[in-house]
Design goal:
Mean pLDDT: 79
Number of helices: 3
Helix content: 55-70%
Number of domains: 1
Shape: elongated
Number of strands: 0
């Protein structure tokens, strides 16, 4: 394969960046919005009148602590191949 010029590399990188931004703006928007709503403990939208409307974060906090401790543990463990 022929060596790419700086201009060709810039064009290729710009195309890849545009594709990545397009993916983030289309494919993940709904999932990210739902995740943010859950993180902010917003109402789910399926609440029933007369029933509890409480949205708690105990499970999310427990998972966050677990993920942080797992990440700390993983950073101390070296894997050799």
């Amino acid at each position: 394969m022929a060596k790419l010029s700086k201009e060709e590399i810039k064009v290729l990188l710009r195309m890849e960046i545009d594709n990545a931004i397009g993916y983030l703006e289309t494919e993940t928007v709904e999932a990210r919005a739902a995740a943010l709503n859950a993180y902010l403990r917003n109402p789910y939208g399926n609440e029933i009148e007369g029933k509890s409307q409480i949205v708690t974060g105990e499970v999310a906090e427990g998972f966050r602590r677990y993920a942080l401790s797992a990440a700390a543990l993983a950073s101390t463990v070296s894997v050799s191949r």
